[in-house]
Amino acid sequence: QVRLVESGGGLVQAGGSLRLSCAASGSIFSINAMGWYRQAPGKQRELVAIITSGGNTNYADSVKGRFTISRDNAKKTVYLQMNSLKPEDTSVYYCNFDYTRYFYSDSLEVWGQGTLVTVSS
Question: What is the sign, positive or negative, of the torsion defined by CA atoms of 51, 63, 14, 40?
């Protein structure tokens, strides 16, 4: 069974940086896309950044220029480098993989457990 394990969250002062990691375990033939989402209390989960199998990236307007998504396909790991953090970035961050299994053509998705990022002013 494929599962994702996140790490790197914590408490940081505004203007600081954090790097989130999300590593997949289990049998994966190919990763179609990796993404980071966040959900603050009382709000819906929103897309923060995504990277596709072709290397294309897309960011929410609120994080452009500050966050960078990257990947290591060999390690089945996605990263989110967060710089110039703002209090508004405070949220639980979730990673998400869209992937294909060996011997199957359909795609599946799996979510990480979430990691809390708190940015103080």
Answer: negative
